[in-house]
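Technical appendix A lists one of the benchmark inputs used to test multi-chain prediction within the project. The record comprises two sequence entries:
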Amino acid sequence: MNTPAVAAPPVTDTQGMAYLDTRTRRVMTVYLPLAGFLFMLLFPFYWMGITAFKPNEELLSREGNPFWVRNPTLAHIKKLLFDTPYPDWLLNTMLVAVVATFLSLLCSVLAAYAIERLRFKGSRYVGMSIFLAYLVPPSILFIPLATMVYKLNLFDSRLALILTYPTFLIPFCTWLLMGYFKSIPFELEECALIDGASRWQILTRIILPLAVPGLISAGIFAFTLSWNEFIYALTFVSSSEVKTVPVGVVTELVEGDVYHWGSLMAGALLGSLPVAILYSFFVEYYVSGLTGAVKE
Amino acid sequence: MATQSTALSRALDNRHVLSFVFLLPAGLLLLVFLTYPLGLGTWLGFTDAKVGRSGVFVGLENFQYLWGDAVTRLALFNTIFYTVVASIIKFALGLWLALLLNKHLPFKAFIRAIVLLPFIVPTALSALAFWWIYDSQFSVISWVLLRLGFINTYIDFLGDPWNARFATIAANIWRGVPFVAITLLAGLQTISPSYYEAASLDGATHWQQFRHVTLPLLTPIIAVVMTFSVLFTFTDFQLIYVLTRGGPLNSTHLMATLSFQRAISGGSLGEGAAIATAMVPFLLAAILLSYYGLQRRAWQQGGTDK
């Protein structure tokens, strides 16, 4: 293509120019804006990470390049893990998230199967109300729930969180699983019914194995939502031993007027890692859960 | 014994009995911890309940008081301002990012995966990172702007009312754009390329293709995504709680944070519940608006009600 300009006929020349033009155009209209987006979206994580390893002298100085660490230190992470109840918070969050997720998945599988496949009278309305329940935000429920938690003697316990998280997990998981169950052909169930299988056998032997991707999507999503939950954990729990990571970091690592930015950012980073790692393994399931729940 | 178990299994094979049994766990949990508190919350809004004391019915007293309360009015203004500004920008940026991600790109799957990161990490924790980025003495933004010569002194991001409003909105946009972009991308991927081929054969420009092919076909999913986005933004709590706690001078208080402050920190459960209840009409309006918008579009395209 790149023949000397003298020998090249004008047509090839303009084509070559056009090729260059679209390439520059593509860089300007696609790669540059995309790079800008990625920079904006990822910078806070970079900043979290770099702050976690910066010694205090570098953090509290306006000199030098703030984008790099000169003398990296593990002091903040060490302080976090050995001088604060952070490990307890991690354990609590894990425990609450895992139990709430399994509880919600169990309830949701049964409910979604009943709504989508048993076709009882009014199943459409039950499905509708599940969707409406999904739209009820925790910020308008936490006050009445707090009074209930107090009356049920659950205040300051992990059980309070385990029982209240399903209020937003079950509607989401049920809605998602209903979509998955819908895609499984009826004929499979009819065959099994003719062969004398009970409904329970159909659910456990035929439907569930086919709905494994949906179960993973719902499970990953539910776990992430529980891990990230804030307002219930802030309201229903007050002792340090039962706090979850987001609440613990926000309420206990911020002491007085002097902010320990290093350990705060280390806490934010370590608290984000478990969901980020889980997410990285199941990106496709997560995305299909997210888009599936919106699309239906 | 044997007859009993067969009677049980026969009952369980009846669709209606089985449906009831299957719906029981989810239904019970949701009725006790969602429906009942929803009613209880509304009721509390009409009482003078305090922490540790169940109140008595006082009618509309809470709402009358709150309507005259300057802080509540400010919180209502803040919430609407926060929601409208953040939602519009999230939509514009999210759509732009979705269109970019829909192009042929190297490492497409990887880029899509990392784009969603801000949405999946705990908001309270990423808000802490923003708190540090907005620090009045050591903000990295101020550092860069100072070196570039745009400013002379460090910006007080969270100490000035309007700065704080825009700073919290920026953090909310940062968290929300990935959600909008990824869901709209899923919508874009369902649009058949043959429409674009037909349009370009007819001589449509890029802008015309976007305006007359992409946008109309994307409208239903835009309506759903934006309803969720508006819902999340209107009821936002964590970001404000971590970044400003409603300050300075209540200029970033949202309805949710104000209701937390009045009910939990201040102990006036009734007042807090009334603020929370006052959010419901706005949420319903948002949902209905998008629902009807959605239906109209489906009908216009010759689709049937799903």
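Residues 10-52 of chain A form the longest helix (43 residues). Confidence is low (pLDDT under 50) at residues 1-17 of chain A. Comparable benchmark entries are summarised in Table A2.
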